[in-house]
Design a protein that fits this description.
Strand order of the largest sheet: 8-9-12-13-14-15-16-17
Structural class: alpha/beta
Distance between the termini: 37 Å
Strand content: 15-25%
Shape: elongated
Largest sheet: 8 strands, parallel, barrel
Bound molecules: ligand TNX
Radius of gyration: 25 Å
Number of strands: 17
């Protein structure tokens, strides 16, 4: 009885349909706040979840719980605030579908992420049949199939948290929303004082675009397994789902190819500057792929060809037209190297590499580069790209290439990645889908402003505002909206030596790209986003992310 006090009416039919409120409004918040405070003053639950005694909750903490509803990033598609608050108790069971190991794993992931800060026990238990009242429930049974591959529905009442999704990925994304609805200190690695409140709500959320990615250049500087896993965890928190690894370039070859061992033996031993380079063995790479998969992120491997190949040319003299291997390169020049596209062995090499990489990744994509091939004659470039996309296809993969590949005759399954021109229009004309990574908005290696020590500025300065205030649908005028796959933010690593550098350039800008990729365009404003982002400062701090405290944001 007590729990309905102050509730806004939530009609389940409305919650499913078009009438569902788009985004909660501040007005609704003000309306329900007094009721919430009243409720909070009356309610305390024991471990069975019954209200047993009267106590007074700190109104500031209740207000914080309510405001977290408005600070989720990416902003959920639809939010209907409820009445009251859910209080986590010790222990709180997490009920999961008994028939699904995958759902159980997601339940355990939530428990593992709540445990350090709360110190609470959150046993993951199978819930047979109908949902048990109370506590936290994660389930795909009875979910609305229109939630799609990644959507979820989250219902929080004062006595239960229920997450529905049609697919496990949706549950995983919903778990990130739950984490963000708890106070920021829930991300602490050490036990923090409670109470652990969640605001009552019904959310229905699914992404605008299927492709929400980041790219990391591990060729110019090499980053080890732990760095990659850390980055994957950060991405997951913001519902990103693609990590593109730029595995080869002039300065380094970073993935073991068993049929061409010198690629890593010689080509993997250098990087920009004087560093030792490095590479992933195939076993290590599989481990990265599996780790990313457990966070519902797909690894997109890139082998950049026919330019950006000095590390390969230095490893095998026979890949050079001259038959002579060039010296390794550790500078940051571009556009000077090319595979010798006249030679049969060049194609043998490319096909072998594509075959081994295809076998390493379960996903349907392989990125073949294709950018800045200034040292390859255009007719040979076009022939090369066409043959390589065919090879990818023969291994059951869709080729992805930087926008320059639009000059070739593309298969409709081939995907182009826009970065600096309108060539992507030609790709869409040929029936290809396009990923948007406009350098002057989405390049994570662009300096924030002239005072940024790291990064480059050839595409201009990209502050947090500029990184956020654009729409993939309007980057190229006349671009057909049905060919937009989504958005990806590339981080080129010429100037970045370690994870701290990577994080500094990535955060907070990546959070904005996550919202551009996930949230409805309608209603997105810099002012609104900026204020929500400010509340993520403490979260990032608890996670030990080395983010740039941009003066554009009044960090909490
Ligand atoms: C352009 S973007 C490149 C990269 C550089 C980057 C530096 C693209 C497809 N090619 O080779 O690392 O600029 O910002």
């Amino acid at each position: 009885m007590l729990y309905s006090l102050g509730s806004l009416p939530i009609d389940p039919e409305r919650a499913k349909g078009k009438m569902f409120a788009k985004r909660s409004t501040f007005k609704q918040f003000v309306l329900i706040l007094p009721a919430v405070l009243l409720l909070a003053a009356c309610q305390k639950k024991n471990s069975q979840g019954n209200a047993t005694m009267t106590t007074t909750f700190d109104p500031t903490q209740v207000a914080e719980a309510m405001s977290n509803l408005h600070n989720v990033i990416p902003a959920p598609a639809a939010v209907q605030p409820g009445g009251g608050i859910f209080t986590l108790v010790d222990p709180t069971p997490i009920y999961v579908d008994p028939a699904s190991d995958e759902v159980k794993t997601i339940g355990q992931y939530l428990a593992d992420h709540m445990k350090p800060a709360t110190g609470y026990s959150l046993p993951v238990l199978p819930a047979a049949g109908t949902l048990l009242p109370g506590r936290i429930t994660l389930t795909t049974s009875g979910a609305d199939s229109s939630l799609g591959a990644e959507g979820y529905e989250l219902a929080i009442t004062p006595d239960s948290v229920t997450l529905h999704a049609a697919q496990p990925a949706g549950l995983f994304h919903g778990v990130q929303t739950i984490r963000q609805l708890f106070p920021a200190r829930v991300e602490s690695a050490t036990v923090q004082p409670g109470p652990w409140f969640l605001p009552a709500v019904v959310m229905r959320d699914d992404p605008r675009f299927v492709w929400r990615g980041m790219m990391l250049d591990v060729a110019r500087h090499f980053f080890g397994m732990e760095d990659i896993k850390t980055l994957i965890d950060r991405m997951a928190y913001y519902k990103l789902n693609r990590l593109h690894l730029h595995l080869t370039d002039d300065q380094g070859w970073r993935i073991e190819i068993k049929s061409w061992p010198n690629l890593t033996k010689i080509g993997g031993s250098t990087e920009v500057g004087s560093g030792p380079g490095g590479f992933y063995t195939q076993e290590e790479f599989k481990e990265i792929v599996a780790y990313a998969q457990s966070r519902y992120i797909m690894i997109i491997p890139e082998i950049d060809m026919p330019g950006h190949v000095n590390a390969a040319l230095a490893s095998y003299p026979e890949l050079n037209c001259s038959g002579v291997a060039p010296a390794p390169r550790i500078d940051i020049g571009v556009g000077y190297s090319s595979l010798c596209v006249d030679k049969d062995i060049t194609f043998q090499f490319a096909y072998d590499v594509i075959g081994e990489i295809s076998a390493l990744t379960p996903g349907p994509y392989i990125h073949i580069g294709g950018d800045e091939a200034a040292a390859t004659p255009m007719d040979q470039y076009i022939d090369f790209i066409q043959r390589i996309q065919g090879s990818a296809r023969s291994h059951g993969k869709q080729a992805i290439g930087w926008e320059e590949i639009a000059r070739a005759k593309l298969l409709t399954t081939t995907i182009a990645q826009q970065w600096t021109s309108d060539l992507a229009l030609q790709a869409a004309d040929q029936g290809s889908d396009v990923i948007f990574s406009p350098a002057d908005r989405a390049y994570l290696d662009m300096k924030y402003d002239p005072g940024t020590d790291l990064g480059q500025n050839w595409a201009g300065y990209v502050n947090v505002d500029r990184a956020y205030t654009w729409d993939p649908a309007t980057v190229l005028s006349g671009f057909p909206i049905n060919h937009i796959l989504g958005v990806e933010a590339p981080l080129w690593s010429e100037t970045l030596q370690n994870l701290e550098d990577v994080e500094y350039m990535t955060f907070p800008r990546l959070i904005g790209y996550a919202e551009i990729g996930w949230s409805p365009q309608e209603g997105r404003t810099w002012a609104g986003y900026r204020d929500r982002l400010a509340t993520h400062g403490p979260r990032l701090t608890y996670m030990h992310v080395n983010f740039y405290r941009s003066p554009e944001v009044q960090w909490k």
